[in-house]
Design brief:
This protein is of the alpha+beta class. The protein folds into two domains: 48 residues; 41 residues, no CATH class. The protein contains one helix and three strands, in the order H-E-E-E. Bound molecules: zinc ion. The site of zinc ion has 8 residues, from loops.
């Protein structure tokens, strides 16, 4: 009986160790993701205003447009080059 408990403890310990390892690896992974995100942001910032965004909906390059009507009238924004097929926009 005692032997069985020891075995269960051993298995639990191993399981917890594996979980901790997975957690640390997972943390490292999301840290890498955050670093990649930061690098990407830095890149687009250094690209400046000449950078053309791609459509969040279909990935096509976007075209600089100016709102002609509605409450945003006169305001520039990025419209999808696939318009009117795709109505993806990016606020400027
Ligand atoms: Zn689009």
């Amino acid at each position: 009986m005692i032997c069985l408990i020891h075995q269960a403890n051993y298995l639990l310990d191993r399981q917890i160790a594996a979980l901790e390892r997975a957690f640390i690896e997972g943390g490292g992974y999301s840290e890498q993701l955050a670093a990649a995100r930061l690098a990407e942001r830095e890149k687009s910032r250094s690209g400046g205003a000449g950078q053309i965004p791609s459509c969040p909906q279909c990935g096509r390059p976007m075209v600089a447009r100016t709102a002609r009507q509605g409450r945003n009238e006169g305001r520039p924004f990025w419209g999808c080059s696939g318009y009117p097929e795709c109505k993806g926009i990016v606020e400027n």
